[in-house]
Amino acid sequence: MENTLPAVNGLPELRPMYMSDLPTVVKIIDYYDDDDAEAAEADFHNNGMEDHFVLELDGKVIGVTGYRTVPATDRTCWLSWTYLANTHRGKGLGKFMTQELIEKVKHIQGRKIFVKVSDYDDPKEGKIYAAALAMYQSLEFIEEVRSVDFYDEGEDQMILGLNLSDDASFADDEQKVAEEKPIIRFNGMHEIAETEGAYTFRWEVRNKKKLFGKRNFTVEDLQIGLKAVKNDGGRKIFLTFPSNLPLIHTPLQAAGFKYVGQLTDYYEKGVHEFHFSHDLRNI
Ligand SMILES: CC(C)(COP(=O)(O)OP(=O)(O)OC[C@H]1O[C@@H](n2cnc3c(N)ncnc32)[C@H](O)[C@@H]1OP(=O)(O)O)[C@@H](O)C(=O)NCCC(=O)NCCS
After folding, report:
1. Residue 5 Cα, ligand 1 centroid: separation in angstroms?
2. What is the pLDDT of residues 209-245, one digit of tens each?
């Protein structure tokens, strides 16, 4: 897609973000959501600002964007904090900034990029992420998974994906990916950041089978987890697994988990990320 110049005087420039930009960036985000500003600040402190950029216009920082690569995947990335100062919105600057970022991801041979968007409907301001959604769609991102009531009751999460390499889209049956049957065990649960009452289970793969060793998780293991989350005040549980693990489906289904959708080619070509959810209000 051709990058169109925004309708502004001066030449906007995307440059790497430095620690000295942090206060301005936090202020830009804080205009929209103080929780997001706090979370972004903590993220920059904890995970650094590598692969993050600020948009400058006339020597002033007016926007931020960036990406983070996903370890253990084949060149998959997530779009990171992407915000434009309110006074500069609606002139094509957000799209320009995000297009420039996508070019940077292509430059490092990124294969696919995903972004999470909320459909929050503010009682006063309406759908505050409508501009973001419209921008991603105009950049040809496509909705792949919608998790109903993810952030809170009545607030869904949409995950949109964009293929960056020419060979990223192909028919499933063209790709033969070996199924794997490792031992998967749950090893904890937690409320998902930025949500009210949405939980997930942490899990690990144990490849070595001992004679009296651990078995794969069962429906009983899941039921214990469901109860623990419910007792903790949780509303819903969201789980994700790679698509090439056939042993997970029977216990998940038996415990009442529903398949929500997949992030296509998330791990590598032909290995998707399957999303499941369980509504605890039904038990
Ligand atoms: C999202 C954001 C970066 C977009 O930047 P922007 O400069 O306002 O948007 P642009 O002018 O570049 O417009 C990009 C596209 O979105 C469309 N768009 C912009 N605002 C819109 C709105 N309020 N409603 C519907 N469509 C809108 C434009 O028409 C344009 O589409 P086109 O390319 O098909 O013409 C900016 O609005 C912002 O910072 N929003 C608040 C923070 C936010 O939601 N961040 C994302 C969190 S996931």
Report:
1. 15
2. 665 666 789 999 999 999 999 999 999 999 999 999 9
Tokens matching residue 80: 């990171």
Query: Of 259, 247, 229, 273, which is closest to residue 116 (Cα–Cα)?
Result: 273
List all residues 6 or more positions away from 65 whose beta carbon is below 8 Å from its beta carbon.
Answer: 14, 52, 53, 55, 79, 80, 81, 82, 83, 97, 98, 101
Whether residue 265 contacts residue 272, with contact meaning beta carbons closer than 8 Å, is answered with: yes
**Structural domains of the chain, ranges and CATH numbers in brackets:** 13-163 (3.40.630.30), 172-282 (3.40.630.30)
> Across-strand partners of 83?
64
Asked whether residue 173 carries a pLDDT value surpassing 70, the answer given is: no
Ligand 1 site, residue 78, Cβ cutoff 6 A: no
| Ligand 1 centroid – CA 279 distance (Å) | 33
Instruction: For 227, list phi and psi in degrees, rounded to 5.
Output: -65, -45
- Integer CA distances (angstroms), 195 to 25, 67, 139, 154, in order: 23, 22, 27, 12
In a 13 Å sphere around the CA of 243, the CA atoms on its Cβ side amount to: 20
Q: How many other CB atoms are found less than 10 A from the CB of residue 283?
A: 11
